[in-house]
Specification:
Elements lengths: L5 E4 L16 E5 L4 E4 L18 H23 L3 E7 L2 E6 L5 E8 L1 E6 L6 H14 L1 H5 L3 E4 L4
Parallel strand pairs: 6-8
Antiparallel strand pairs: 1-2, 2-3, 4-7, 5-6
Helix pairs in contact: 1-2
Length: 154
């Protein structure tokens, strides 16, 4: 078993708190030393009680799913002799009501644009197979209840 950790830190400061008008801004600290400003989404808690410049948990979940898929895709492409020059993805997550009636990220849509170098270029079928296998191996996607789909390769 592998263990992954993140540290979260929030302080009330001089805010009253029980009136619910406190800042949701906080910090995420990761084992490599990265310190990231985090907050609730302004879509959930209005500014100034949230920080629109910070990463919110919903964005982080979408980014984690997209990043996991990409990392497996790159590994599989390299193992099959394809040279990836660039991989960009504009991933989108949908917050909706789940089947149990609770709010949930019900779908994450990946829309990668990939540039391959070299003479060996995957055709559409090979590209779909790379995405399918990357998705199957992505333990972030495997951990979620909602769907994680790669647009155009479902």
């Amino acid at each position: 078993m592998k263990r992954f950790e993140a540290t979260l830190a929030w302080q009330r400061g001089d805010q009253a708190f029980t009136d619910l008008r406190y800042s949701r801004a906080h910090r995420w600290r990761f084992d490599g030393g990265l310190d990231v400003p985090a907050s609730s989404s302004p879509l959930s808690v209005p500014v100034p009680l949230s920080d629109p410049a910070a990463v919110d948990p919903e964005e982080a979940l979408v980014a984690a799913a997209a990043s996991c898929h990409m990392l497996f895709f790159l590994s599989l492409a390299a193992a099959r002799g394809y040279v990836v020059d660039r991989y960009e993805d504009r991933a989108v997550g949908l917050l909706d009501t789940g089947p149990d009636g609770r709010a949930a990220i019900t779908r994450i849509m990946l829309d990668p644009v990939i540039a391959f170098g070299g003479e060996r270029q995957p055709d559409r079928a090979a590209l779909a197979e790379l995405h399918h296998e990357a998705h199957a191996r992505c333990y972030i996607a495997n951990s979620l209840k909602g769907d994680v789909v790669v647009e155009g390769f479902e």
